[in-house]
Amino acid sequence: MAARGRGATIAILALALGGCRGSHGGSGQDGAADSRDAALVVVVDAAPPPDDSIPATSSDELTARARHLFEALGKGDPVLASDIAFPRDGWVALRDEADPGRDWSKHMDVPFDKSVRAIAKHHKDLDRAQFVSIDLGHAVVQATPHHHGWKKPLWTVHGSRITYSMDGHTRTVAIREMTAWRGAWYVTRLR
């Protein structure tokens, strides 16, 4: 899965026209300053939210990423949901492990991939269902930092659900655990 960052860089191009050169048919030798077109580029780096900030329980951004997860479940393709799986760069920065990259693969990446494929195999008809919503569980708690765990007190929630409709019936798919990092919710355990 690709690493995902939350920082944003915004570039603004402002074109400043200093005058109306040539609009009066003058040669520019009448003592007036020669106007030149000028371009100004301003780069603003928006700092990401703190690692342990608690995001909203619903947002358009979370809904879009949950739709990706639902599509991945319907097709049995975990790559389609890579934006809702807890990112490797966050895991590496926040886990108290000797080799946090290996730990991410063992405890996040491989289990997430297996879970997506298992759910797709169990619910063979999800590819024709309609996504309705994602609902975070009700008990959002702050995880206590500990050895071989999170270094910081991140927010977690259990019992989240994706609601979908099919053939006139509303059903759900459970998400075992989601963890907040830098202002967004990510799946840390699907099943």
Offer a quick outline of the entry.
The protein has 191 residues and is an alpha+beta fold. The chain has helices at 60-75, 88-94, 100-122; strands spanning 8-17, 37-46, 130-135, 140-142, 155-166, 169-181, 184-189.
List the topology elements:
Blueprint: E1 8-17, E2 37-46, H1 60-75, H2 88-94, H3 100-122, E3 130-135, E4 140-142, E5 155-166, E6 169-181, E7 184-189
Antiparallel strand pairs: 1-2, 3-5, 4-5, 5-6, 6-7
**Basic shape:** globular
% residues in beta strands = 25-35%
Topology as a string of helices (H) and strands (E): EEHHHEEEEE
Largest sheet: 5 strands, antiparallel
Rg is 25 Å
Give the helix tally: 3
The percent range for helix content is: 10-25%
Give the helix/strand class.
alpha+beta
How many E-type strands? 7
Cα-to-Cα separation, first versus last residue: 19 Å
Overall pLDDT level: 82
Which blocks of ≥5 consecutive residues have pLDDT under 50? 1-39
Q: Tell me the number of structural domains.
A: 2
Give an overview of the whole structure.
By secondary structure, this protein is α+β, with helices and mostly antiparallel strands. It folds into 2 domains: 8-46, no CATH class; 60-189, no CATH class. It is built from 3 helices and 7 strands. The strands form 2 sheets. Strands 3, 4, 5, 6 and 7 form a 5-stranded antiparallel beta sheet that branches. Strands 1-2 form a two-stranded antiparallel ribbon. Helix 1 crosses helix 3 and helix 2 crosses helix 3.
